[in-house]
Amino acid sequence: MTADVPGMSEGAKVSPFRDPKIRALFFQVLVIVTFLAFVYYIADNTITNLEKRGIASGFDFLSQNSGFDIGIVLLVDYNAQTSTHGDVLLIGIINTLAVSLSGIVLATIIGFVFGVLRLSNNWIVNRIAYVYIEVVRNIPLLVQLLFWYLAVLLELPKVRDSVKLGDSVAINNRGFYFPSIVPDSGFWLIPTAFVLGIIATVFVSKWAHKRQDETGQQFPVFTTGLALIIGLPVLAALVSGIPFALEYPSMGRFNIAGGWVIKPEFMALFLGLSIYTGGFIAEIVRSGINAVSHGQTEAANSLGIKPSVTMRLIIIPQALRVIIPPLTSQFLNLTKNSSLATAIGYSEIVAIFAGTSLNQTGQAIEIIALTMLFYLTISLIISVFMNWYNKRIALVER
């Protein structure tokens, strides 16, 4: 046997104990065997302890009756008398996704706006952006959530003294009330037109980019896309004879009835997560813009290009390659920070499934494992999407 062993001539026989390949293989096998033995010990010890305490294992509890009410339920029907812990898990997932996705959208908008304003030559604008970023980044998120919930939203007027905007919107400490849409036959045409508008906008955007590469002429993609996404549903509604009715919120005996309502718990979590994460995204955007050579701006100015066009078409596209990786981390942080909703009573997965369901069933291992699996799946999906987008906008050398 020959090997690259220091101090030995080529072709000389090497003892297996001194061969680097055999030693590396030996230690890898040793690590794997040790890890498997550790996992077996933990699993066996856990099963033994569960049997001693008479605690059931498995996932049969998901079909058991839940027996408790949930404050905020989105998209699905829930009844404490008939619904199961599996329904509680589904509601927790939907509520968590709702506040996380809406928070990511608003935090991105806030971050990009204040990141650009932070570089403004206007002293007042620059200082306002600076104060916002420094304040929200240095106050714990939990404190901010309590501020929005206890000091802002719960201090709104009571139901009898609701702030009304016309006859359609009412605001009080129980929520934001506005008209709901009651669909009629033929309503499906409107959401179909909305989806078609989005698909058409994607095709128009690709065509406009190809046209600009070939001729140098720009096409108003934003206004065209806006017209398609809004115009097609409006046209579909007119053609189908307005297949829906509006249900306005009205004052009842003890509360406002009818319409849709956004609860203070959701609003506090939504605002807290968005404003807090927006401060970090603003710094990421600012550093990404600063990473682009200032010569790019000077060259655009020398050609007489407007500053807004320079920022939108020259600086931001190049800065995105620096912005996207840390931006991915902020999206993941926002999703995981939504678990702090327990402090303000929002019904997300940790509060109702890993909280109430766990206390009722006592099956901590299964419930915590499902909760961890949910967060792991969401994190991987966000990472895969952002990595795909990062590769898509990467600079391609010819």
The general outline is globular
Tally of alpha and pi helices: 11
Distance linking N and C termini: 47 Å
Strand percentage lies at: 5-15%
| Cα radius of gyration in angstroms | 28 Å
Secondary-structure content class:
alpha+beta
General description of the model:
- It contains eleven helices and eight strands.
- Helix 5 packs antiparallel against helix 6 and helix 10 (349-361) packs antiparallel against helix 11.
- The chain has 398 residues and is α+β, with helices and mostly antiparallel strands.
- It is 63% helix and 7% strand.
- A four-stranded antiparallel sheet has the order 1-2-3-8.
- The chain has helices at 20-52, 85-117, 123-137, 141-153, 189-215, 221-239, 264-291, 294-302, 307-337, 349-361, 364-392, and strands spanning 163-165, 169-172, 175-178, 180-183, 244-247, 250-251, 256-257, 260-262.
